[in-house]
Amino acid sequence: MILPIYTYGQPVLRKVAEDITLDYPELKKLIENMFETMVHADGVGLAAPQIGLPIRVVTITLDPLSDEFPEFKDFNRAYINPHILEVGGEEVAMEEGCLSLPGIHETVKRGSRIHVKYMDENFVEHDEVVEGYLARVMQHEFDHLDGKMFIDHISPLRKQMIKGKLNTMLKGKARSSYKMKQIK
User: What's the rounded Cα separation, in Å, for the pair 42 and 154?
Assistant: First the structure.
């Protein structure tokens, strides 16, 4: 089922999400719905707060990039209770966008390598060092679990320049090709 994506201004996007347990109700269905919602909106990542749930669940698909990056073929993963333990490597600037901020794209600097702990959808624990593009996507999505958005990483000047677009979202007048849950 395709779920509405919560846009900038929704309080859930600024809350720190809670870890979940193995008995979380209908987790498998939630993950399926998150993948369907993300793919329908042409996203590569979706965090549970973006669909209104303050829990630590993220879905990432890099398969749409596999024509250009064959190593991402069939890359579809769910991350449960992820926590970044360390960010390192070279700081790389790259343009980012977000399904919760339709129409806004800004250059963000992020570390090229992270040390992360998480569980997969079977609650198998993983402790990994991740590099490159996946590390960037994970940082972006896991930020949502800590009540942060990519615009929190841009300069005050850039934020001032997008203030009009942010205010449009706060008025519930953002537009996108996917179903959104906006401030009324």
Answer: 23
Angle at 60 between CA 75 and CA 149, to 5 degrees: 150
Q: In the chain, what is the straight-line distance between the N-terminal and C-terminal CA atoms, in Å?
A: 23
pLDDT in tens, 8-51: 999 999 999 999 999 999 999 999 999 999 999 999 999 999 99
Amino acid occupying residue 42: D
Q: Which residues pair with 108 in a beta bridge?
A: 94
Question: Tokens 């615009």 label which residue?
Answer: 151
Q: Which of 91, 121, 128, 141 is catalytic?
A: 141
Q: Is 141 a catalytic residue?
A: yes
pTM over 0.90: yes
pLDDT at 183 over 90: no
Query: Which amino acid is located at 38 in the chain?
Result: M
Max alpha carbon distance in the chain (Å)?
45
User: What whole-number distance in Å separates Cα of residue 7 and Cα of residue 166?
Assistant: 10
CA dist., res. 53 & res. 91, Å (int): 31
